[in-house]
Design a protein that fits this description.
Layout lengths: L1 E5 L9 E8 L8 E5 L6 E5 L4 E5 L2 E2 L3 E4 L6 E7 L2 E7 L3 H4 L12 E3 L11 H6 L4 H18 L6 H12 L6 H7 L4 H12 L3 H18 L6 H7 L5 H12 L3 H6 L3 E3 L2 E3 L3
Antiparallel strand pairs: 1-2, 2-9, 3-8, 3-12, 4-7, 4-9, 5-6, 5-8, 7-10, 11-12
Helix pairs in contact: 7-9, 8-9
Length: 271
């Protein structure tokens, strides 16, 4: 699998962290199995289904789909000569860009073409008819920019701040302190956060902490696992291992024995 990551246009960095492309070899005939990790972010994927496709639970995923927050790990399969263009969206993008209640897409996805106005042409059709990756990224970027401008009034600076603080602290900020700072009741804070991000503040914090520990393993930035647990403020090593298995699908030790991630948070499963 050939993978490339590309920066977003400057005016979309508030909503997009990166574009990526994934392409199977031209002679690829063997299906590939992947494990996805919870990463605290939604995303978009375009795939040319006539050549190769992603499947989850034996179900063909749409040609152009928007997916929400993942609360745990999942398995997907790719068949044929897969060629995909994807986007890592920011945690706030479902609400801020598309005006969606982010909770409706938690652990699921939707056909992105349903978000196009009736008088608009099919995005998938435009993308299929554009052979270059650069052209496809330009089409998607233009569409996202239009969506963001249309839903600008739905931006919530308070929730954006909460997300930023949790991510900055790698999941270790005191949520009670954030709630008090924003002058919200515990129930209101959780309700608004779920609507804006798709999961609770506590779960988002736990995923951010997991991602911080995953980054250390990915970069081999540790001497022993207990150091990773301590530096990310887990109660102990066993607590860290349980959390890692919950969000990655295998233990830190098993992760290190796997093939390198094809894409961040997408690992190839060994046969």
């Amino acid at each position: 699998m050939k993978y490339q990551q590309l920066p977003p246009p400057g005016h979309l960095k508030e909503y997009i962290s990166a574009f990526w492309t994934l392409e199977a070899p031209a002679d690829s005939t063997t299906p590939h199995s992947f494990q996805t990790f919870a990463d605290g972010c939604p995303g978009l994927i375009f795939q040319t289904v006539e050549q190769g496709s992603f499947y989850q639970n034996d179900k063909l995923l749409p040609g152009f789909f928007l997916y929400g927050q993942a609360t745990t790990h999942a398995r997907i399969h790719a068949t044929g000569k897969l060629r995909a263009v994807g986007i890592f969206l920011r945690p706030n993008a479902l609400k801020a860009v598309f005006g969606l209640n982010a909770g409706i897409l938690t652990d699921t996805c939707m056909d992105a073409n349903t978000l196009v106005r009736p008088d608009g042409s099919s995005l998938s059709e435009q993308l299929v008819n554009t052979t270059s990756t650069t052209g496809q990224i330009e089409i998607i970027s233009s569409w996202i920019n239009t969506q963001a401008e249309r839903n600008n009034s739905r931006r919530n600076d308070m929730m954006h701040y909460a997300v930023s603080e949790i991510a900055r602290s790698k999941g270790n900020v005191a949520l009670k302190g954030l709630q008090i700072e924003m002058q919200l009741s515990e129930r209101s804070f959780e309700r608004k956060f779920k609507e804006y991000i798709g999961i609770s503040p506590k779960l988002f914090s736990r995923i951010c902490r997991f991602q911080a520990s995953l980054k250390q393993l990915r970069n081999n930035d540790f001497s022993k696992l207990s150091d990773v647990a301590f530096e990310n403020e887990y109660a102990d090593q066993s607590h860290f291992i349980r959390a890692f298995k919950e969000f990655a699908g295998f233990s830190p030790f098993q992760y290190q024995k796997q093939s390198p991630e094809v894409i961040e948070n997408l690992a190839t499963l060994l046969k």
